[in-house]
Amino acid sequence: MTRVSRLALALATATLLSAAALAQTAATAPAADASKPMAQPAPEMKAVLDKLTALGAKPIGTQSVEETRKGPTPADAAMAVMKEKGIQPDAAFKAVKTRDLTIPGAGGPIPVRIYTPEGTGPFPIVVYFHGGGWVIADIDTYDASARGIAAGAKAVVVSADYRHAPEHKFPAAHEDANAAYKWAIENSGSFNGDAKKVALVGESAGGNLAANVAITARDQKLTAPLAEVLVYPVAGKDMTTPSYVENAEAMPLSKKAMEWFVSNVFESKQQAADPRLDLVNRSDLAGLPPTTIINAEIDPLRSEGEMLAGKLKAAGVATEQKTYAGVTHEFFGMAAVVPQAKDATAMAVAALTKAFAN
């Protein structure tokens, strides 16, 4: 697993188509323009990327899983920039209290961290899933995102880990995500949560998990989430989209990195066509909760996030999507040092607050 990131960063931070019609409509990205160069990161984003390089980070896909898990993370780089610039943590983030525990997963105990904001509660609940391609990272690495959501949305955040590949291949993480959601609903009273007000948030691979949990909740008639926020979610299997072509050599997530994740997560490349991964080509997206999708311009996953937004809207799902210019994959948890991350967090918080107010 990735080494534990210190808490400092965390503190700082129209037409409705029928199902039959959707089944006949494969999600197709616009033709990729091979001549379009990769966008340049904004100064604040570049400072984090430069610091990540200075810390000795190697491109994902060039080392073993064990070595990659031990390496510096974008969160580490953002913390280092914060320290260098003398940025102090926000008081609201600092006030969020945490409690670590383990809960039953689909294949054994999984770690969970409960984030509780100031107040008396009971609080709305956000079940949050971290990124890392289902291979690297953990709830510590993404502490800033979960803490920022708890502070901003005045909600208790259940940040749930899950089994990682290659030790546990697909769909182990998806099974654990469903188990964590069910646990949060059934045990809401133990952490001062309101089981009638639940939402889902996930980043990258975790965004894919959050979307699939929403689908499972619909299909199994579980307590329905009031909203889902998907931050640069993994949503397709096509690595020839415009954003894959433009950002093939992007940092910290490149096309090679995504190929490496796929090789570690799935038994075969054909498994990547599973509808749990290939969300953009699903024909059953109707009936999902209001969805907010946040994307980064300099990210191979940008196109599929934008396509997923279009597919959800076509299925009648209230959907808002925004692509932030000048930032890369992993920018969301960097609100203390990257202005776009602060804006993206505000967008996520606004969507959650609106959902919980209904």
Description:
With 358 residues, this protein is of the alpha/beta class. 38% of the residues lie in helices and 17% in strands. The chain is built from 13 helices and eight strands. Strands 1-2-4-3-5-6-7-8 form an eight-stranded mixed β-sheet, with helices on both faces. Helix 3 crosses helix 5, helix 7 packs across helix 13 and helix 8 packs across helix 9. It is globular.
- How far is the first residue's CA from the last residue's CA? 39 Å
Q: Roughly how many Å is the radius of gyration?
A: 19 Å
Low-pLDDT sequence parts: 1-26
Q: Helix and strand succession?
A: HHHHHHEEEHEHEHEHHEHEH
Number of beta strands: 8
Strand content: 15-25%
The outline comes out as globular
Helix content: 25-40%
Descriptive terms for the model:
alpha/beta; 358 residues; globular; eight-stranded mixed sheet; disordered N terminus
Reconstruct the topology from this structure.
Blueprint: H1 7-12, H2 19-23, H3 43-54, H4 65-70, H5 74-85, H6 91-95, E1 97-104, E2 109-116, E3 123-129, H7 143-153, E4 156-160, H8 172-186, E5 193-203, H9 205-219, E6 228-231, H10 242-246, H11 255-265, E7 291-298, H12 302-314, E8 319-328, H13 339-357
Parallel strand pairs: 3-4, 3-5, 5-6, 6-7, 7-8
Antiparallel strand pairs: 1-2, 2-4
